[in-house]
Structures are given as C-alpha cells and as structure tokens.
Please model this.
Amino acid sequence: MRMLIALIAGMLFGAGLTLSGMTDPHRVRAFLDIFGDWDPTLAFVMGGAIIPMAIAWRIQRRAERPFADASFALPDTVKIDAQLVLGSILFGVGWGLGGLCPGPAVAGLALAPIAVAPFLASLLAGMALHRLTSR
Amino acid sequence: MIAAFPPAQPLAGLIGGLMIGGAAAILLLGLGRIAGVSGLAARAIGLADTGAPRPVAIAFTLGLPLGAAFVALLAGPVEARYPASLAALIVAGLLVGYGTRLGSGCTSGHGVCGLSRLSRRSIVATVLFIASGVVTVATLRVEGWM
Model:
C-alpha cells in the first residue's frame, strides 16, 4: 500500500514536470535568463505546486497521523547554517549551467535517456562525494 | 501564451504545477513525508542513511520517469533541449548532486514543500539557488557561452 501510494505520487509528479515543460533544460535556463529571453513558465509551475501543498500543510497540522503510515516524519531543523547556504548556492550554479535539477533529470530517463545520462551519472557522483566527505 | 514573453506556457505550467503539488500533498498526507526528489533519489540509490523507507523512496523515484513516459505517450514527443556541452552537463551534475545534499534539498523539497510550509530555511535556500542560477546564466551570457 505504501509503495503504491509512493509510486502514484511519483508518477503524478513526473507527469506534472513533463506537462509543464520542466523536463526541457532550455526552458528552465530561460527562466533563470532574466537578462536575456526570459521565460516565466517556471514561476507558474512553482505557484501552481504551492497551492495544493499550502492546503495540505493546513490539513497536516490538524491530522494526528498520515492516512497510510504511523506518523509524520518531517524536518524540524530551523537553523540557517553554512551547509544550507553553501549547498543551495552550489546547487544553483549547477542548475543554471545544466538547466536540470534532480526531479526533471530522473524523469528525463524516459524522455531523453542518452542526453541525460552524463548529468545523472555525475549527479550521483556528487551525492556520493557528499556522503564520503560528511562522515 | 503571454504577449510580452512569446515562449511562455503559463497554463501548461500552472496545470503541471498543480499536479506536482498534488503529488507532494499525497506523499505528505498519505505517508507523512516530504516530496524532496534529491533526498528520495539518494535514498533510493543507497546514498542516504536516513529518510523514507527504501521501498517508498524507490517507488517514488521510479514513478518519475513512468509519469513522464505516460505524458509522452499521450501528448506526443516532449521537447528536451539539452546544453550542447558534455563538460558543462557533467560539472552541472556534480554541483547539483553535491549541493542538494549539502543544502538538504532542491527545487521540490525546499521550493515546493518548504515554501508552502513557510519554512525559513527553505525560503533562504530557494532565494539562494534561484539567485545563483540567475547569476550563472547571466555569466554564461556575458562570456558568450550561451
């Protein structure tokens, strides 16, 4: 049951990314290209995604537990630390350079597997590097 | 289409965004988890020691390309214009992989789930990664690399 819910959520997420053009690196870079040919589509995607989630958070606050699991497992860190700042800046540089973030890159396996493969391989290498260096 | 920004797809963006937010809402209210792709993908592949149960992370991560394939099947070929430079893609991947793990999230976890929760950490993260993305693209333009 839990795997089915996760699979459905993943499929809906991947379908939404694809339908909104977010699996097209050129379109994502065009959102970041405010001094060039700016394309605001990503702002509509972000805005659209925040609507159901804002409602979901309101429901979550009153819920005792999720409907298919024992308890909520949510981040409770509040500190704005150097890792958050540096990590987000590095991520942004890579995002601008490639036009890809993790969701569209994984979804891209079904759309442009050969084009996305080098990015995905180095994405995993980057994650592995963080794991090795943070121990 | 917006007259001032010919390539923009506000309606498709909004509908796709609602689907993404709906998916994140299902994960939150169904399984009590944040739909953060960097964390779930790392967990699925075995590069994270904490987080969602592995079967859940694997199912969600596999769902992403399945959902994409579904749209491509129904709507026809999906545009995917990748940067021409292989070196740029490889460096980009390293930065995105390392950066999202160090910063505990990406566009989905901080951008969608965190912003809608009004998390201060996620607001800071989202402002920073958009700003550094804008500076990166502007730099590429100035240097004539795009």
